Amino acid sequence: MHVDGRERLRMAAGALLGVLLAGWLSRWVGGHWGISPWLVAPIGASAVLVFGVPASPLAQPWPVVGGNTLSTLVGVACAALVPDPAVAGAMAVALAIALMVPLRCLHPPGGAAALFVVMAHGAKPQFALFPVLTNSLLLVAAGMAWHAATGKRYPHAQQARASGGAAPGGSATRAAGRFTPEDLDAALLHYNQVLDVSRDDLEALLHHAEAEAYRRNFGHLRCGDIMSREPATVAFGTELQEAWALMRRRRVKALPVVDRARRIVGIVTTADFMRQIDLDVHQGIGEQLRALVRRVGAVHSTKPEVVGQIMTRQVRVVSEQRPALDLVPLFTEGGHHHIPVIDAERRLVGIITQSDLVRALHRAVG
């Protein structure tokens, strides 16, 4: 566990102030009403959880308050009903666990509270209200105030998930991850143990680990490393028939459109050709495409004749030095299928397709 010096100081200072507040106020109340003891030892263990691991499910307000108080009542009952302190203590701890789990208030200091009551030769039920309940409430209040003042989240409530299973505000990393929230739920069901980490924190941690693994295996690759070099290209004035024949011959679905300096001026894709035909008429698509690309030969024509008339002018390009990992959201969310690659002088040097990216990912993590 890596925690820097500043965080260790914050944890220790919070525990100091939390226990001090609980002790001072409880002593004032106990002195006013003539009640002793006014502070119990398990509160020290609770302070470790509240201020040391505030994200833990065991450190949340209900486990602190409910776990300590209910376990104390269990200890009072066992001390009254079982004469042997050793047997009573063991029963108190066991029954406290059995009670806290279904009530969702499992709290390790609760076991200490139950045992403390037995070893103190019993106590009245009022002991659960003061000092245990009072100490616990004051400690939780101090924890809320301290974490809010130091920029931490407490209570650490579970994030509600959207109906589709994704966490609200889910990032592209989560959406593109190799496991879903349902996969994690299934794994936790098979695990069948209490985890000292919230489900949401565990999911976020696993996604971060997955992202780091991708960066380690894939982050050193540049677009120039995975691109297809010397792609087939056409010019603005290339006839549609020639461009279509080139696409079929090279078995590609996109052709960058370049000028004489090989700078990108557009891109023509299969979709650009398909947009020129009417899919609602009964005439076959193949026949319409043949009619589209057939050269008319007249001076004036009502249909497009050259690539520049149907190409997409706004083209997303990347430099050959750009990290290949940056392309993942472009392909998965941006709707891109082909991305031209340019050099420092903005000249076309290659093209990256979804197949190129998938192949590189497979090699990196394989």
Explain the layout of strands and helices.
Blueprint: H1 5-33, H2 42-52, H3 61-81, H4 85-100, H5 108-119, H6 126-149, H7 172-175, H8 181-191, H9 199-218, H10 223-226, E1 228-229, H11 240-250, E2 254-258, E3 264-269, H12 270-274, H13 285-293, E4 318-319, H14 327-332, E5 338-342, E6 348-353, H15 354-365
Parallel strand pairs: 4-5
Antiparallel strand pairs: 1-6, 2-3, 5-6
What's the quick description here?
By secondary structure, this protein is of the alpha+beta class. It has 15 helices and six strands.
Structure, described:
The protein is α+β, with helices and mostly antiparallel strands and 366 residues long. It is built from 15 helices and six strands. It has helices at residues 5-33, 42-52, 61-81, 85-100, 108-119, 126-149, 172-175, 181-191, 199-218, 223-226, 240-250, 270-274, 285-293, 327-332, 354-365, and strands at residues 228-229, 254-258, 264-269, 318-319, 338-342, 348-353. The strands form two sheets. The chain has a four-stranded mixed beta sheet with strand order 1-6-5-4. Helix 1 (5-33) packs antiparallel against helix 2. The protein starts with a helix and ends with a helix.
Strand runs, count: 6
Q: Which whole number gives the mean pLDDT?
A: 87
What share of residues are in beta strands? 5-15%
Query: Describe the biggest sheet?
Result: 4 strands, mixed
User: Low-confidence parts, pLDDT < 50 over ≥5 residues?
Assistant: 160-176
H/I helix tally:
15
Radius of gyration: 34 Å
Question: How does the overall form come out from the CA principal axes?
Answer: elongated
Helix content percent band: 40-55%
The succession of helices and strands, N to C, reads: HHHHHHHHHHEHEEHHEHEEH
Structural class: alpha+beta
Oligomer: single chain
Strand order of the biggest β-sheet: 1-6-5-4
Distance between the termini: 29 Å
